[in-house]
Amino acid sequence: MTTYLTRILEFKAGEVRDLKQRSPERLYREKVAELPPVRDFYGALRRAPESPINLIAEVKKASPSRGILVEDFHPLDIARRYAELGASAFSVLTDREFFQGSNDYLQLVASSCDIPVLRKDFIIDESQIFEARLIGADAILLIVAALEPAQLGEYLSLAHELGLAVLVEVHDEHELEHALEQGSRMIGVNNRDLRDFTFSLDTSLRLRPKMPSGIIAVAESGLKRSSDVMMMQEASFDAVLIGEGLLGEELQGFTWKRI
């Protein structure tokens, strides 16, 4: 059955073939001494007891389900506005075909802001991890549904070798089990089903109690109201990742550190 995720991964495989021709691993080895230090993404998101939940603010132009979200798209202006709201980290879309993202957007935000930056993309090959470090990312996303268990473990190890934090994304108990088996330190629960793009906040509430202590827990997708954010805070999530919700009227003026 063809789903949103299978379509994206099939297209991504072609992009990866092109990327590998540019030898990002070789480029990384040549330039590693010149690269800026990686910022502490894990530290930025770990929530102390009694502290408010952290925000990963997503800089996002479009989505496959809703099309263009921001017509007059200026990623740095958006990032600066989110920083003023109290964001602890950024997520920047770099997928071109389905989200109209760009490596250039991430490079601009990462080089202009002090807040750590997550590369939001569909990573299916180690070449993309080397590329992430080259373009200035401090963290990457690994989606359990897009990888074999052995790949997940290998890519986690490689990312940490390069100094990158990893947000491992799960959607159900089976994926969560794989993420934990492979030693994930930060787990994001995607409330949106990547097969059909429907969402339910109950997904986060169901999976959070199944995570052991010490895991940095992130609730992703479908958070549109302050009450949604408070629900995730009460459920002991360390952070929420919000993209489209920050464009809505209720969360546009929400000041994060004053929850």
UniProtKB/TrEMBL annotation:
Domain of life where this protein originates: Bacteria
The keyword Cytoplasm belongs to this UniProt entry's keyword annotation: no
UniProt KW keywords: Amino-acid biosynthesis, Aromatic amino acid biosynthesis, Decarboxylase, Lyase, Tryptophan biosynthesis
Native source organism of the sequence: Prosthecochloris aestuarii (strain DSM 271 / SK 413)
UniProt lineage: Bacteria, Pseudomonadati, Chlorobiota, Chlorobiia, Chlorobiales
Catalytic activity: 1-(2-carboxyphenylamino)-1-deoxy-D-ribulose 5-phosphate + H(+) = (1S,2R)-1-C-(indol-3-yl)glycerol 3-phosphate + CO2 + H2O
Pathway(s) annotated for this protein in UniProt: Amino-acid biosynthesis; L-tryptophan biosynthesis; L-tryptophan from chorismate: step 4/5
Gene Ontology biological process: L-tryptophan biosynthetic process
Listed name of the protein: Indole-3-glycerol phosphate synthase
Pfam families in the record: IGPS (PF00218)
Chain ranges of the Indole-3-glycerol phosphate synthase domain: 5-249
Statement: the UniProt record of this protein carries the keyword Cell membrane: no
EC number: 4.1.1.48
Similarity section: Belongs to the TrpC family.
A single GO molecular function term of this UniProt record: phosphoribosylanthranilate isomerase activity
